[in-house]
Amino acid sequence: MCLCGLAGTTVQLILFNILRFHLHEAPANSIAIEGAILTNFFMHNTISFRDFKFSREHKLRTWLYKLGKFNFFSLFSLLLQTIVMFVGITLFGSSFWKANILLIIGVGLGTISNYFTYKHFVWKVA
Asked: What pLDDT, in 10s, does the model give residues 69-97?
């Protein structure tokens, strides 16, 4: 689980630091979070929750439903991280280090809620 989260966080950090030069940090982080969400979905499906992964026999519709469900349950993390970023930048200003520290704080808070949400709602045993 931690390895998958680390991969998602790496994707998010890279995308965020590319996009923050073109957008305000909050929307740049929201886009970067979606990149992390997609990375996490594919890795969790393959590694963390492999006992419950979607087999090749599943129809595309079922697979897309699970991806949508994963994305939906990740919205709280996206919202939480965006609030941390927006409030932090508003209060402390913008710099490379401040923005990245705020991003890491948001990721940490989101990780805690995501683990339980994914385990109980996305990859739960039927």
From this structure: 888 988 888 888 889 999 999 999 989 99
Look up tokens 């519709």; give the residue.
61
CB 5 within 8 A of CB 103: no
CA pair distance 15, 111, nearest whole angstrom: 18
CB 74 within 8 A of CB 114: yes
Express the helix, strand and coil content of the chain in percent, nearest 5 each. 85, 0, 15
Residue 15: CB atoms within 10 A of its CB come to 19
Residue 125 and residue 81 in contact, taking contact as beta carbons nearer than 8 Å: no
Counted domains in the chain: 1
Map tokens 């996206």 to a residue: 78
Residues of the domain holding 81: 2-122
Query: Is 22 strand, coil or helix?
Result: coil
